[in-house]
Write the structure tokens for this entry.
Amino acid sequence: MADSPSPTIAVPPPTALPAGRPAALPENPFAEGIRNRRVVEPCVIVLFGATGDLTHRKLLPALYNLARDGLLPQHVAIVGLARREKTDESFRQDLIEGLKRSSRSFSEADPLWQRFKSAIFYHPASFEESLGYRVLGERLERLDKELGTEGNRLFYLATGPEYFSPIVRLLGEAGLARPQEGPNSGAGPAAPAGPPGSRKRPWVRVVVEKPFGRDLPSAIGLNRELLAVLEESQIYRIDHYLGKETVQNILAFRFSNGIFEPLWNHKYIDHVQITVAEDLGVGSRGPYYDSSGALRDMVQNHMLQLLALVAMEPPVSMEADAVRDEKVKVLRALRPMTPEEVLRSAIRGQYAAGSILGEPVRAYRDEDRVPKDSATPTYVALRLHIDNWRWAGVPFYLRHGKRLPRRATEIAIQFHTPPMRLFGEASAPAASPNVLILNIQPDEGISLCFGSKVPGPDVRIRQVKMDFRYGHSFGVASPDAYERLLLDAIAGDSTLFTRRDEVEYAWKFVNPLLETWAAEGSRGLHFYPAGTWGPESADRLFEGAGGHWRRM
Ligand code: BG6
């Protein structure tokens, strides 16, 4: 690593640094764990879409938090790229607002911010003009020399989806999609450090935000265009749900414990319910949302990922492809829906005016820049099946909606009731099956519901809950999903990113729903008052099978 007076942003330096020497990484137990597992090499992070909401609200605060925890590489530069004219300094100033709002702790006076901001740069350029990419290339090379970032590049596409392909094509044409030195693709996990003095091979990785396509053909097309320039192992398709601690804990819970996995199949499980409820409406995202809708926005990506993690077989190892191979098998096994099946097993709704926490809220069709006759669903409920040995005959129910009474994401695994009723109607009035609930957010934890005798001379059974809460057990707040995902991308670990085949199988399942609903228009669209749990017709998905949506 070149000795240079670089703006190292690891914190906190115990004393003033001698000029020309990199800062020592701070002692931090969490950082230690991370460093034990992977190498974070010096790099330049280029944020396309630097003036956008995602950069300000999520990416920069996540990078700042990583710096605070001492998890970023010692030599790192962040280059924001967007069309607007700005200087490095004005860009840094513009970031302050978002950092104050979204980072764990931020103050302009903090020496960390002083060091961090000196590693942030702004590069005005159009996403679609090749000249800008050549100039960018020259600037990155200069940064390599000045800051010791060693030719490693992480390009983050935080832009509208229409730019994903052009950006990658132009990166390719400017020679930026391949590492600048050495014959390798530089794609995979960081190469182990060689003997002293040996040259490490640089890498180039590209993080692609959502939405990844808007249906199966466009996702296949986008994959084809990216892969014309990049290797699959260079592409990091982000699904921020996979970066959530509680989502990662699904695998830890299933595969680091002996007692649950034997029960995790059709013999013991009656059905699974996955709920992602949001109390917010579409806010200022009307035009995006109206062309997308609940199925594309949440189900194709986040919810099918949750489903895959719950339903997958144990992987042979925790390596990226071993985990993703198993998730793909689940997505492949989703029973395809015919148009008739779509009408029977999928319900779509749209919020009408209503109230949330006593506050009146307007109808979806009255949201800014949403057409008054929009048929876009803001609510989806589905019953689906996974046609494999483990899940034969077990329905999976998925529901998601905006403007529901509260924000709550959970996975509820409902077990079969006991084979016979020993306790009579009077003792246990309602059949109360065991339910294991993985609370993804906001009350992060795991609960198990079971029947218990009410104290007293009579035999009366009531459902009780055994609770594990992250906050109580670990006493630390979970890092934001983007922190984990950015760190993984820097470290070259793609386990929590979706692979080409994963994305395409998910679209393959969703496509018949999109097509059937497009053909139906607003026929079959159910309206629900904002602040309720969605259209009542969603209850009919349980007809014949028994059960009902969980009351939350
Ligand atoms: C995004 C969707 O991907 O996820 C939004 O575009 C949604 O519509 C958001 O609100 C939900 O994310 P989270 O992390 O708040 O559950």
